[in-house]
C-alpha cells in the first residue's frame, strides 16, 4: 500500500496518483514491506596487548598489596641488633701469678700477685708499709727493707723493680738491679730479696 502524503488515503501499490485526491504519489513511499534493519555491527575485539575497560558489572581484579613480595621471592628479614660484646674478665692479665718461698724463710709459703702494683717488703704501720708480699715472718735478720721492691703486672707483662732497698734485689742470681730500672721476669724465675729466695709461678687462666 502507498499512503498519500496529502490526504492520508491508502492506495494500491503501483499507482502514480492518489485515488482520493489525485495528488502525485511518491514512488515506493509508504511500502509496507519495510527493508529489514541492518544488524548492529559487533564491537571489534580489543587488540591484543591493549587495555580495555571492564564490562559493566564485572569486578576488576584486586591489586596486590605493594608490601607483598613477588611470588617466589624471599623477603629478607632485618638483621638482629648487635649485642654488646661481653667484657673480658676485668680486662686483667690472662694468667694468675704468685711468689713462692723456696729458701730462707717459710718454705712453701705463697703470695698471690694482683694485677697492677705489688709491694714486696715488711709490714710496718709506723712507716705506712703495708706490702702485698709481706716477708716480715720470713726475715728474722731484718735483711729486707720495709719497702724493698715492686712487682708490676700490666699489659700481660710482669716486671720487678728495686725501690731503694738496703741489701738489693736480684733475679736469677744476676747482678743487683739498679733502683728505678724495672726488669721483666717470667714463670720459673728466681727472685732474691735479702736472704729469702722466691720463685715466680705463672699459671694461665682456663
In short, what is this structure?
The chain is mainly β and 206 residues long.
Question: What this model shows, in words?
Answer:
The protein has 206 residues and is mainly beta. Helices cover 0% and strands 28% of the residues. The chain has a five-stranded antiparallel beta sheet, with no helix packed on it. It has a five-stranded mixed beta sheet with strand order 6-5-7-8-10, with no helix packed on it. A hairpin with a 2-residue loop joins strand 11 (190-193) and strand 12 (196-204). The radius of gyration is 59 Å and the shape is rod-shaped.
Taken from the alpha-carbon principal axes, the silhouette is rod-shaped
How is the biggest beta sheet arranged? Answer: 5 strands, antiparallel
Q: If strands are numbered along the chain, what order do they take across the biggest sheet?
A: 4-3-12-11-9
Radius of gyration: 59 Å
SSE run: EEEEEEEEEEEE
Distance between the termini: 124 Å
List the SSEs and their pairings:
Blueprint: E1 2-3, E2 10-11, E3 95-103, E4 110-113, E5 116-121, E6 133-134, E7 147-154, E8 157-162, E9 169-171, E10 183-184, E11 190-193, E12 196-204
Parallel strand pairs: 5-6
Antiparallel strand pairs: 1-2, 3-4, 3-12, 5-7, 7-8, 8-10, 9-11, 11-12
Features:
206 residues; mainly beta
Amino acid at each position: 500500500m502507498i499512503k498519500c502524503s496529502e490526504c492520508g488515503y491508502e492506495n494500491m501499490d503501483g499507482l502514480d496518483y492518489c485515488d482520493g485526491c489525485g495528488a502525485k504519489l511518491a514512488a515506493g513511499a509508504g511500502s509496507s514491506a519495510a527493508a529489514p534493519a541492518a544488524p548492529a555491527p559487533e564491537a571489534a575485539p580489543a587488540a591484543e596487548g591493549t587495555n580495555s575497560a571492564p564490562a559493566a558489572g564485572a569486578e576488576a581484579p584486586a591489586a596486590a598489596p605493594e608490601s607483598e613480595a613477588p611470588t617466589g621471592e624471599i623477603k629478607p628479614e632485618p638483621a638482629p641488633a648487635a649485642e654488646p660484646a661481653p667484657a673480658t674478665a676485668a680486662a686483667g692479665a690472662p694468667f694468675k701469678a704468685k711468689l713462692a718461698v723456696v729458701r730462707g724463710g717459710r718454705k712453701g709459703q705463697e703470695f698471690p700477685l694482683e694485677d697492677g702494683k705489688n709491694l714486696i717488703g715488711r709490714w710496718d704501720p709506723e712507716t705506712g708499709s703495708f706490702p702485698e708480699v709481706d716477708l716480715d715472718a720470713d726475715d728474722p735478720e731484718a735483711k729486707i727493707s720495709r719497702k724493698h721492691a715492686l712487682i708490676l703486672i700490666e699489659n700481660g707483662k710482669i716486671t720487678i723493680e728495686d725501690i731503694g732497698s738496703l741489701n738489693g734485689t736480684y733475679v736469677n742470681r744476676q747482678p743487683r738491679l739498679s733502683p728505678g730500672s724495672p726488669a721483666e721476669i717470667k714463670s720459673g724465675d728466681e727472685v732474691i730479696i735479702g736472704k729469702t729466695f722466691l720463685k715466680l709461678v705463672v699459671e694461665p687462666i682456663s
